[in-house]
Specification:
This protein is an all-alpha fold. It is built from eight helices and two strands, in the order E-H-H-H-H-E-H-H-H-H. The protein has one domain: Serine Threonine Protein Phosphatase 5, Tetratricopeptide repeat, CATH 1.25.40. It has a two-stranded antiparallel ribbon. The chain is globular and about 60 Å long.
């Protein structure tokens, strides 16, 4: 079961990876977007990290994600703020007020969150958007968190030969072909951070169990 601390760790890890990869995200956005995806997400997730420190600690996983979502919507310009904010807020809403959630419950909630993103953006698989990473990533959560991260990464790479049909890149028509979608790339980073936190928690639990057996 995953408690609120797990979700705070996920958002903190996401902020760290966005900080590390912000320049690359902006480089990917430069030829097909407004060259601000990295800087926008950096501002947003930095604000999320701050909010998690200054706000009273949420007791429920859902509340952590809803706080993160609200913060992204209020601090990130362009399309990425509303879309990522919707993803996290809807996922948090689906998780409700339970103090702990199972991996299966998180997968189901994320699926609803991705559906909300698709509805908000009017996009589908193959449109060269963040959904091309989120859809396969969330579908693979039933296997493992690492499988989800790998599927999302492969989905992001698969956007290179696509022609964009939604978002700013769609204005370029065939000129959007040959570029990796920045939104799909940042979505893969988000699921990669989730996998890292889950694996670290598992390793720490197993180490504690081994230490207990040795006493």
């Amino acid at each position: 079961m995953r408690d609120a601390e797990f979700f705070r760790s996920w958002m903190t890890a996401a902020a760290a990876v966005v900080e590390r990869e912000a320049d690359r995200l902006t480089e990917l956005d430069s030829p097909i977007g407004d060259a601000d995806h990295g800087s926008n997400l950096l501002r947003g997730f930095t604000a999320v990290r701050t909010a998690l420190k200054v706000e009273p600690p949420a007791a429920a996983p859902g509340a952590v994600l809803q706080l993160a979502g609200r913060t992204l919507i209020s601090t990130v310009g362009g399309a990425s703020g509303p879309l990522y904010g919707m993803l996290l807020r809807r996922t948090g809403k689906e998780l409700g007020e339970a103090p702990e959630v199972s991996d299966a419950e998180l997968a189901a909630a994320l699926d609803k969150g991705v559906g909300a993103v698709a509805q908000l953006g009017g996009a589908a698989a193959g449109d060269k958007t963040m959904l091309d990473a989120l859809l396969p990533g969330v579908a693979a959560l039933g296997t493992s968190y690492r499988a989800a991260a790998d599927a999302a990464e492969n989905g992001a790479l698969a956007t290179v030969p696509m022609q964009a049909r939604k978002g700013r890149a769609s204005y370029l028509g065939e000129r959007s072909i040959g570029h990796q979608d920045p939104g799909a790339t940042s979505s893969a980073l988000l699921l990669g951070a989730l996998a890292d936190v889950a694996e670290r928690e598992t390793a720490e639990r197993e180490a504690a169990e081994r230490a207990g057996d040795g006493r």
